[in-house]
Write a structure and sequence with these properties.
The structure is a single chain. The chain has one domain (23-176): 3-Layer(aba) Sandwich (Aminopeptidase). A hairpin with a 4-residue loop joins strand 5 and strand 6. The longest helix is centred in the C-terminal third of the chain and has 15 residues, at 116-130. It has helices spanning 34-45, 54-61, 64-73, 116-130, 145-153, and strands at residues 5-11, 14-19, 25-28, 75-80, 86-94, 99-107, 135-141, 157-165, 168-176. The protein is an alpha+beta fold. The chain contains 5 helices and 9 strands, in the order E-E-E-H-H-H-E-E-E-H-E-H-E-E.
Protein backbone atom coordinates (compact mmCIF):
# COMPACT_ATOMS: atom_id res chain seq x y z
CA UNK A 1 0.00 0.00 0.00
CA UNK A 2 1.45 3.36 -1.03
CA UNK A 3 -0.35 6.66 -0.43
CA UNK A 4 -3.68 4.93 0.06
CA UNK A 5 -3.34 2.87 -3.13
CA UNK A 6 -2.90 -0.88 -3.02
CA UNK A 7 -1.20 -2.35 -6.06
CA UNK A 8 -3.01 -5.51 -7.10
CA UNK A 9 -0.85 -6.55 -10.07
CA UNK A 10 -0.10 -5.92 -13.72
CA UNK A 11 -2.59 -6.03 -16.55
CA UNK A 12 -2.01 -5.00 -20.13
CA UNK A 13 1.19 -3.14 -19.32
CA UNK A 14 -0.35 -1.11 -16.48
CA UNK A 15 -0.79 -1.50 -12.76
CA UNK A 16 -4.20 -2.49 -11.48
CA UNK A 17 -4.78 -0.56 -8.28
CA UNK A 18 -7.50 -0.24 -5.70
CA UNK A 19 -7.84 3.09 -3.96
CA UNK A 20 -8.64 2.58 -0.29
CA UNK A 21 -12.08 3.81 0.57
CA UNK A 22 -12.54 5.61 3.85
CA UNK A 23 -16.09 4.31 4.18
CA UNK A 24 -16.53 2.26 7.31
CA UNK A 25 -19.19 1.42 9.86
CA UNK A 26 -19.04 0.92 13.60
CA UNK A 27 -21.12 -1.63 15.45
CA UNK A 28 -21.03 -3.78 18.55
CA UNK A 29 -18.69 -6.73 18.23
CA UNK A 30 -19.89 -10.33 18.21
CA UNK A 31 -17.99 -13.54 18.92
CA UNK A 32 -17.84 -13.97 15.15
CA UNK A 33 -15.57 -10.90 14.98
CA UNK A 34 -12.92 -12.50 17.22
CA UNK A 35 -10.43 -13.45 14.51
CA UNK A 36 -10.71 -10.01 12.90
CA UNK A 37 -10.25 -8.25 16.24
CA UNK A 38 -7.14 -10.30 17.04
CA UNK A 39 -5.68 -9.58 13.60
CA UNK A 40 -6.45 -5.88 13.95
CA UNK A 41 -4.72 -5.73 17.35
CA UNK A 42 -1.66 -7.56 16.02
CA UNK A 43 -1.43 -5.34 12.94
CA UNK A 44 -1.86 -2.12 14.94
CA UNK A 45 0.76 -3.00 17.57
CA UNK A 46 3.31 -4.99 15.55
CA UNK A 47 5.57 -1.98 14.98
CA UNK A 48 5.82 -1.52 18.78
CA UNK A 49 6.62 -5.18 19.53
CA UNK A 50 10.29 -4.55 20.33
CA UNK A 51 9.42 -1.66 22.68
CA UNK A 52 7.09 -3.83 24.80
CA UNK A 53 7.88 -6.47 27.36
CA UNK A 54 6.59 -9.94 26.47
CA UNK A 55 3.79 -9.79 29.06
CA UNK A 56 2.72 -6.28 28.09
CA UNK A 57 2.59 -7.17 24.41
CA UNK A 58 0.52 -10.31 24.99
CA UNK A 59 -1.89 -8.41 27.24
CA UNK A 60 -2.24 -5.75 24.52
CA UNK A 61 -2.74 -7.94 21.45
CA UNK A 62 -4.70 -10.56 23.43
CA UNK A 63 -5.09 -14.28 22.95
CA UNK A 64 -8.24 -16.02 21.77
CA UNK A 65 -9.07 -16.79 25.42
CA UNK A 66 -8.43 -13.28 26.77
CA UNK A 67 -10.47 -11.80 23.93
CA UNK A 68 -13.41 -14.05 24.84
CA UNK A 69 -13.15 -12.77 28.41
CA UNK A 70 -13.14 -9.17 27.16
CA UNK A 71 -16.15 -9.82 24.95
CA UNK A 72 -18.07 -11.26 27.90
CA UNK A 73 -17.11 -8.59 30.46
CA UNK A 74 -16.88 -5.41 28.36
CA UNK A 75 -18.68 -3.68 25.54
CA UNK A 76 -16.54 -4.11 22.43
CA UNK A 77 -16.98 -2.17 19.20
CA UNK A 78 -15.53 -2.83 15.77
CA UNK A 79 -15.06 -0.63 12.73
CA UNK A 80 -15.71 -2.56 9.52
CA UNK A 81 -14.71 -1.66 5.99
CA UNK A 82 -16.94 -2.21 2.95
CA UNK A 83 -15.86 -5.87 2.80
CA UNK A 84 -16.93 -6.31 6.47
CA UNK A 85 -13.31 -6.73 7.60
CA UNK A 86 -12.34 -5.41 11.04
CA UNK A 87 -10.23 -2.27 10.57
CA UNK A 88 -10.52 -0.94 14.13
CA UNK A 89 -11.66 -1.93 17.59
CA UNK A 90 -12.10 -0.56 21.11
CA UNK A 91 -13.76 -1.71 24.32
CA UNK A 92 -15.20 -0.07 27.40
CA UNK A 93 -16.48 -1.07 30.79
CA UNK A 94 -17.82 0.64 33.85
CA UNK A 95 -15.12 0.98 36.52
CA UNK A 96 -17.60 2.26 39.10
CA UNK A 97 -20.91 4.12 39.24
CA UNK A 98 -19.49 7.30 37.71
CA UNK A 99 -16.38 6.20 35.81
CA UNK A 100 -15.99 4.30 32.60
CA UNK A 101 -12.76 2.78 31.34
CA UNK A 102 -11.58 2.38 27.74
CA UNK A 103 -9.27 -0.44 26.63
CA UNK A 104 -7.94 -2.00 23.48
CA UNK A 105 -8.14 0.90 21.02
CA UNK A 106 -6.55 -0.26 17.77
CA UNK A 107 -6.75 0.70 14.11
CA UNK A 108 -5.06 -1.21 11.30
CA UNK A 109 -2.08 0.81 10.01
CA UNK A 110 -3.54 1.29 6.52
CA UNK A 111 -6.65 2.86 8.09
CA UNK A 112 -4.88 5.19 10.50
CA UNK A 113 -5.66 8.81 9.69
CA UNK A 114 -9.03 7.95 8.10
CA UNK A 115 -11.14 8.94 11.14
CA UNK A 116 -11.65 5.40 12.46
CA UNK A 117 -10.07 6.03 15.87
CA UNK A 118 -12.02 9.27 16.34
CA UNK A 119 -15.32 7.54 15.54
CA UNK A 120 -14.52 4.59 17.80
CA UNK A 121 -13.64 6.96 20.64
CA UNK A 122 -16.84 8.92 20.16
CA UNK A 123 -18.84 5.69 20.16
CA UNK A 124 -17.42 4.43 23.47
CA UNK A 125 -17.84 7.86 25.06
CA UNK A 126 -21.47 7.86 23.92
CA UNK A 127 -21.91 4.38 25.41
CA UNK A 128 -20.43 5.48 28.74
CA UNK A 129 -22.53 8.67 28.85
CA UNK A 130 -25.57 6.44 28.37
CA UNK A 131 -24.48 4.55 31.48
CA UNK A 132 -24.41 7.86 33.39
CA UNK A 133 -20.61 7.97 33.62
CA UNK A 134 -19.30 11.48 34.21
CA UNK A 135 -15.65 10.56 33.78
CA UNK A 136 -13.70 8.17 31.58
CA UNK A 137 -10.18 6.83 31.95
CA UNK A 138 -7.80 4.94 29.71
CA UNK A 139 -4.21 3.79 29.95
CA UNK A 140 -1.40 3.88 27.42
CA UNK A 141 2.33 3.28 27.28
CA UNK A 142 5.31 5.48 26.39
CA UNK A 143 5.96 3.92 22.96
CA UNK A 144 2.48 5.00 21.82
CA UNK A 145 3.30 8.71 21.38
CA UNK A 146 0.91 9.10 18.45
CA UNK A 147 -1.92 7.67 20.56
CA UNK A 148 -1.09 10.07 23.40
CA UNK A 149 -1.33 13.06 21.04
CA UNK A 150 -4.62 11.69 19.70
CA UNK A 151 -6.11 11.36 23.19
CA UNK A 152 -4.91 14.84 24.15
CA UNK A 153 -6.48 16.33 20.98
CA UNK A 154 -9.73 14.66 22.04
CA UNK A 155 -9.83 16.20 25.52
CA UNK A 156 -7.95 13.63 27.60
CA UNK A 157 -5.38 14.72 30.15
CA UNK A 158 -2.75 12.82 32.08
CA UNK A 159 -4.03 12.14 35.59
CA UNK A 160 -0.53 11.79 37.03
CA UNK A 161 -1.15 8.14 37.86
CA UNK A 162 1.46 5.74 36.50
CA UNK A 163 1.19 2.02 37.17
CA UNK A 164 3.38 -0.96 36.40
CA UNK A 165 2.28 -2.86 33.29
CA UNK A 166 4.37 -6.01 33.06
CA UNK A 167 7.53 -3.97 33.66
CA UNK A 168 6.44 -0.95 31.61
CA UNK A 169 5.03 2.40 32.70
CA UNK A 170 1.25 2.53 32.22
CA UNK A 171 0.09 6.14 31.96
CA UNK A 172 -3.47 7.01 32.89
CA UNK A 173 -5.45 9.60 30.94
CA UNK A 174 -8.85 10.94 32.05
CA UNK A 175 -11.64 13.04 30.61
CA UNK A 176 -14.83 14.49 32.04
CA UNK A 177 -17.87 13.50 30.00
Amino acid sequence: MRNGVEELGWRGGGVIALVKSSIFQIRGATRGDAAGILECLRAAFSEYRAAYTEGAYLDTVLTAESLQTRLSKSTVFVALDGMQQVVGTVSCSQADEQEGHIRGMAVRPEWQGAGVARQLLQRVEQQLRGRKCSRVSLDTTEPLRRAMRFYERNGYERSGKIADFFGMALIEYVKKL
